[in-house]
Amino acid sequence: MPVPYRIDCPYCGEVIELLLDESVADQCYIEDCAVCCQGNPPAFSARQKWS
């Protein structure tokens, strides 16, 4: 099930909400900023550790 995460755009400070699926062990997610449309978008990556 997708979980909402909020990050700030490093260029304009706009809050960007990402919906990430925590059931996926390895993922990389990139979202363009809707306000400033920078060429180098903010990125989120996660790697789940299994115990």
Automatic annotation (TrEMBL):
- Pfam family of the protein (one): Zn_ribbon_21
Q: Which domain of life is it from?
A: Bacteria
Name listed for the protein in its UniProt record: CPXCG motif-containing cysteine-rich protein
